[in-house]
Design a protein that fits this description.
Elements: H1 15-34, E1 38-39, E2 45-47, H2 48-51, H3 56-61, E3 65-67, H4 78-83, H5 86-93, E4 94-98, H6 103-113, E5 121-130, E6 142-151, H7 156-172, E7 177-183, H8 184-193, H9 200-207, H10 210-225, H11 229-239, H12 246-253, H13 258-274, E8 280-283, E9 297-303, E10 310-317, E11 331-337, H14 338-347, E12 361-363, H15 368-383, E13 388-390, H16 397-406, E14 411-414, H17 417-422, E15 425-429, E16 435-438, H18 440-444
Parallel strand pairs: 1-5, 7-8, 12-13, 12-14
Antiparallel strand pairs: 2-4, 3-4, 5-6, 6-11, 7-9, 9-10, 10-11, 14-15, 15-16
Length: 448
């Protein structure tokens, strides 16, 4: 006998959970479309060369690779097989991998479909992604991303628009958030100022983990990577500057860095154009976003009242399509972390008004004759888009009521001999237990 078990980092979703998740998705999708984004979908897996080299060394390690079909071992040279070296073996045993995010597949999609598109191209995508990460609260190996991106425009108004999109979505979900914002050009300017080009990736990757591991471990990892202690202390002081003094500090530090100065101007422009928002917009130099392809504005969103890590993030990437042959096509995009948003809403009690997938009405089955009478009304209810079902078997009334109660069906409709003669029904409200005689037209008005 096989033990029923799930792979680590994956989940089953009950109807109740799916109803709540769908509530979130519906709000996000509606806002995407209100802002002019149109949907696409891409395959669950891509060619392995499409994905690798885009997420940094740590990201590449988390890509789920798919073994080739057939007897792939026959194709491995003996010396490679005997080496037991994973990097050497990989090209012989795998050609495909599950997608790590939705942005790199988007870049591939745009290059392949560019002749069918109108640029700037605004797309949204709501699909699962997979990462071979260590499972923990709010972090899974299979999870959904809800992305919106614009490709083909360098306008900073696009950067502003995404702040307002975040603000609108989280306001609609009733989640108070902090929208953190930075610019990778500023970080690149700081890297140049401290001569950190040789350890740029280690600097960025470690800074990106600040929320999880704290300053002590960040500074220890920087020193381990080869950054001297004096520079580490100075870096911490600069990166920890308050939002009020941020631009004054940066202008003094990066006045000789063209890239850093450009990043400062961009960040100031985006913040000033954004204007008033329902949620806090906070410039934060410690925000790095670990993915290698970001080049300008970067965002990260955190809930104010419940800690769940990042529940949204994104940024600008100037030439991601260039690796597939389409040069000079700047893009910017953001992602909503559906699974973490669900956790925040669940812990905050924000799902109380969410209706599940249960019917609004259940018709009782007293026997074939009564069921046939109920069936005609059932068809009318469904035609009016009222979720309804007929209990399939003429079992005891108690059992049928128990079924309706356990399914949280609010109304039970009964029709026996007397009701059929009068061409009416008996309607029971399962919440308060009251009963009354109703017509078909009364039933059709239940959803109003």
């Amino acid at each position: 006998m096989i033990k029923a078990a799930l792979p680590k980092g994956t989940r089953d979703f009950t109807p109740e959970v799916l109803a709540k998740r769908q509530y979130i998705v519906d709000i996000i999708r509606k806002k995407f479309e209100t802002y002019g984004f149109q949907p696409i979908e891409t395959p669950a897996f891509e060619k392995i060369e499409t994905l690798t080299g885009k997420y940094g060394d740590e990201g590449d390690k988390l890509i789920f690779k798919i073994l080739n079909s057939g007897d792939f071992l026959k194709k491995i040279p003996d010396d490679v097989y005997k080496s037991k070296n994973a990097k050497k073996l990989t090209p012989y045993i795998t050609e495909k991998a599950l997608r790590y995010d939705l942005t790199v597949p988007l870049a591939r999609y745009v290059v392949m479909h560019r002749n069918e598109m109108v640029f700037p191209f605004k797309r949204y995508q709501i699909q699962p992604v997979w990462r071979a990460d260590r499972p923990q609260k709010g972090r899974f190996r299979e999870f959904y991303q809800c992305d919106a991106d614009v490709l083909g425009s360098k306008s900073l108004w696009q950067d502003v628009e995404f702040i307002h999109l975040y603000d609108d979505v989280f306001s609609a979900l009733k989640i108070p958030v902090q929208i953190r914002i930075n610019n990778r050009k500023i970080l690149n300017g700081i890297i140049a100022e401290f001569n950190l080009d040789r350890v740029k990736q280690a600097f960025m990757t470690t800074l990106d983990k600040l929320d999880k591991i704290g300053w002590d471990k960040v500074t220890a990892e920087w020193e381990k990577a080869g950054i001297d202690a004096a520079s580490v202390r100075k870096l911490k002081e600069i990166l920890s500057v308050s939002p009020e003094n941020l631009f004054e500090k940066l202008n003094g530090l990066l006045h000789n860095s063209p890239e850093g100065t450009e990043g400062i101007k961009e960040l100031q422009t985006v913040i000033s154009r954004t204007g008033k928002t329902n949620n806090k917009l906070v410039p934060d130099l410690t925000l790095a976003r670990g993915l290698d392809y970001y080049t300008g504005t970067i965002y990260e969103v955190q809930a104010e009242n419940v800690y769940a890590g990042s529940i949204g993030g994104g940024g600008r990437y100037d030439d991601l399509t260039g690796i597939f042959g389409l040069k000079n096509t700047s893009g910017i995009g953001i992602s909503f972390g559906l699974d973490r948003i669900y956790l925040v809403m669940n812990e905050s009690g924000l799902f109380e008004q969410v209706r599940g997938f249960q019917p609004l009405v259940m018709l009782v089955n007293f026997g074939d004759r009564e069921a046939a009478y109920a069936w005609e009304t059932l068809k009318k209810l469904r035609k009016a888009n009222i979720p309804a079902e007929l209990y399939p078997d003429p079992v005891k009334l108690k059992k049928q009521f128990q079924y309706a109660d356990r399914r949280n069906i609010p109304y039970v409709v009964m029709a026996g001999t007397d009701e059929m003669k009068e061409n009416v029904f008996t309607l029971k409200n399962m919440k308060d237990g009251t009963q009354k005689k109703v017509t078909v037209d009364d039933l059709l008005n239940l959803a109003q």
